[in-house]
């Protein structure tokens, strides 16, 4: 049996059922496995599948319930940004905002040859939304970065 190694982000959220709807609609993914907690109100394990790649999420559970991870609201913020490579960054951000996300960096042309912006979803997780417009050599990117970060007069 062949196993494909891959990273699978697992997000802890404040409302698993709302997160399932948000991620499915915004990222136009397919719903994978979903398992409810014994209380029937919280998601123990949820999945969204994007082009064969999975995103796991679940509601927050107390230590008494076996929970070890906390949602951003409990922590007072997040220490992780997930970057999603997309075909249309503007459309993804527009869908996210229409469903309650907050823009923290508008989509714009960036020095690495992409349209890129950042949002915080309604569950406190930060997302980089990247649409690669053109491939550049290392030298082209370094020159563009130098110009991008140059002091403005």
Molecular structure report:
With 153 residues, this protein is α/β, with parallel strands linked by helices. The protein has one domain: 2,3-Dihydroxybiphenyl 1,2-Dioxygenase, domain 1. The protein is built from 4 helices and 8 strands, in the order βαβββαβαβββα. It has helices at 16-26, 72-75, 89-98, 138-148; strands at residues 10-13, 30-36, 43-50, 53-59, 81-85, 102-109, 114-120, 126-132. It has a 4-stranded mixed β-sheet with strand order 1-4-3-2, with helices on one face. The longest helix is centred in the first third of the chain and has 11 residues, at 16-26.
Secondary structural class: alpha/beta
Radius of gyration: 18 Å
Sketch the major β-sheet.
4 strands, mixed
Q: Tally the helices: what do you get? A: 4
Our estimate of the beta-strand percent is: 25-35%
Q: Which shape, going by the Cα principal axes?
A: elongated
At the first level of CATH, the class is Alpha Beta
The H-and-E topology, N to C, reads as EHEEEHEHEEEH
Please, what is the CATH homologous superfamily? 2,3-Dihydroxybiphenyl 1,2-Dioxygenase, domain 1
Query: Can you tell me the CATH architecture?
Result: Roll
Q: Provide the spatial order of strands within the biggest beta sheet.
A: 1-4-3-2
* Amount of helix: 10-25%
Number of distinct beta strands: 8
Give the CATH topology.
2,3-Dihydroxybiphenyl 1,2-Dioxygenase, domain 1
Q: Quick check: average pLDDT?
A: 94
């Amino acid at each position: 049996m062949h196993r494909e190694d891959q990273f699978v982000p697992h997000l802890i959220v404040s409302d698993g059922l709302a997160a399932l709807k948000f991620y499915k609609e915004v990222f136009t993914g397919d719903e994978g496995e979903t398992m409810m907690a014994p209380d029937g109100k919280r998601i123990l394990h949820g999945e969204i599948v994007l082009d064969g790649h999975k995103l796991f999420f679940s509601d927050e559970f107390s230590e008494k319930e076996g929970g070890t991870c906390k949602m951003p609201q409990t922590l007072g913020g997040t220490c992780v940004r997930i970057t999603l490579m997309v075909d249309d960054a503007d459309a993804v951000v527009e869908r996210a905002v229409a469903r309650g996300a907050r823009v923290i960096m508008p989509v714009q042309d960036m020095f690495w040859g992409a349209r890129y912006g950042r949002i915080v979803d309604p569950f406190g997780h930060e997302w980089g939304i990247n649409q690669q417009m053109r491939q550049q050599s290392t030298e082209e990117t370094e020159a563009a970065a130098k110009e991008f970060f140059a002091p403005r007069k």
